[in-house]
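Check out one such.
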Amino acid sequence: MNASSDTAGDGGGAPSFSPLYQQIKALIMRGLQAGEWKPGEAIPSELELAARFRVSQGTVRKAIDELAAENLLVRRQGKGTFVATHSEQKIQYRFLRLQPEGGGEPVPMQRQFLDCRRIPAPADVARALALRAGEMAVEVRRTLSQNGRPIVLDDIWLPASLFKGLTAQRMGDYKGPLYGLFESEFGVRMIRAEEKIRAVAADGEVAGVLGVDAGSPLLSVERLSFTYGDKPVELRRGFYDTSTHHYRNELN
């Protein structure tokens, strides 16, 4: 990352209408995307970044504040600022909005991987993941359970080119969150997601897996997750049994 050609402070090509801290944020993001600082590693101090980009420390701090608010960086008192990982307690539940009735923090669910196969991506999946027609995808099917009762049935689609060697056993053996596995072993970090939520009635197949009656009300959650550069890397279609849980979101 060379600030001399990217920040407004030195007459580079960055758009003049972009606030300077946003330009610094974009430069830090570029370093994250390029792997200059790996998940879990410390980034340079605010003073070092300020000298590197030839801007004030306050400008760097504002850029880092936004990246921390977006869960891309984590500040640790007395230690510095680190690249966030999906193993962080705060972050590993960032994409899991299902909570038990009665409140409290989400609790870990037991995972069971039902299938993991490589097939040509169906047309709708290929469109969502920006794949070429006929390009291979990995389809993962799993359940999430509590106290032996299935709560979620997930159908997960991934670009096969990014997840070579992914198997159901490999996922089952990994003790952390699934996104932590994608991040640590495949170098794919989910940084944001879009969701579509609707109410549906369980068909016979889904009802059988979740142990509910056919026609029971379920929550259908379709999530498209993106990595750096707004590149889609996961399409997840889940069916949630909300008879003992609710879907919680915070609007800021």
